[in-house]
Amino acid sequence: MGDAQTALAQALSACAKGDRQGLKAIYEAEARRMVTIAERILRRHDLAEEIVQEAFLQIWRKAGQYDPARGSARGWLYAVVRSRALNAIRDGRREEAVDADSLERLQDEAQDGLFSDIYNDLDQASRLRACLDRLDAARRRTILMAYVSGYSHGEIAGRLKLPLGTAKAWIRRSLLTLRECMA
């Protein structure tokens, strides 16, 4: 496990014991990326910040549920944020309209390497990392865009300049490959 992963796992353990320094360490290390992920899903910075705040409350309360045997600490944290953001969409808290500045900022951020950072941060020995390694880089990116950042098939196709059918096929086939590998 990498140093950052070890530090996050230790911080989660500290949170589970009621140590606020653990939560502070997680916030300092991950809050910015968490807001970026939530904003990509919600398309609203203000709502993304609110969701991350709610996520940190959940992390504080539920840190004892983190199980290192089931995945990385960062993966667990991002799953909490992603889940809260998707719940906000289901609850109708996201407005559909996106102003031009927000859209441009999101498109610029899509090129910032977050996907490769997330992939590179996976524990080298994890089963998910090994299974993702079986996919070529383009297909791995479509999976990360869909399941980490919450992009729709159409958004993925647009950002990667692919026909919609191709994007859907890549995601479907990649998921089948991952399921077979993880089984």
Overview of the molecule:
The protein has helices at 3-16, 20-42, 45-62, 73-90, 100-110, 114-121, 127-133, 137-147, 153-160, 164-182. With 183 residues, it is mainly alpha-helical. It has 2 domains: 1-96, Rna Polymerase Sigma Factor, Chain: A (Orthogonal Bundle), CATH 1.10.1740; 113-183, Arc Repressor Mutant, subunit A. Helix 2 packs antiparallel against helix 3, helix 3 crosses helix 4 (73-90) and helix 8 crosses helix 10. Belongs to the sigma-70 factor family. ECF subfamily. Pfam families: Sigma70_r2 (PF04542), Sigma70_r4_2 (PF08281). This is RNA polymerase sigma-70 factor (ECF subfamily). It comes from Rhizobium halophytocola.
By CATH reckoning, the class of the largest domain would read: Mainly Alpha
Low-confidence stretches: none
- Structural class by helix and strand composition: mainly alpha
Q: At CATH's second level, what is the architecture of the largest domain? A: Orthogonal Bundle
Strand content: under 5%
Percent helix, as a range, is over 70%
Per the principal axes of the C-alpha atoms, what is the gross shape?
globular
Number of domains: 2
What are the secondary-structure elements, in order, as H or E? HHHHHHHHHH
Q: What integer value in Å does the Rg equal? A: 17 Å
Quick one: biggest sheet? none
Alpha plus pi helix count: 10
End-to-end Cα distance = 23 Å
InterPro entries: RNA_pol_sigma-70-like, RNA_pol_sigma-70_dom, RNA_pol_sigma70_r2, RNA_pol_sigma70_r4_t2, RNA_pol_sigma_r2, RNA_pol_sigma_r3/r4-like, WH-like_DNA-bd_sf
Family: Belongs to the sigma-70 factor family. ECF subfamily.
Domain RNA polymerase sigma factor 70 region 4 type: 127-177
Keywords: Sigma factor, Transcription, Transcription regulation
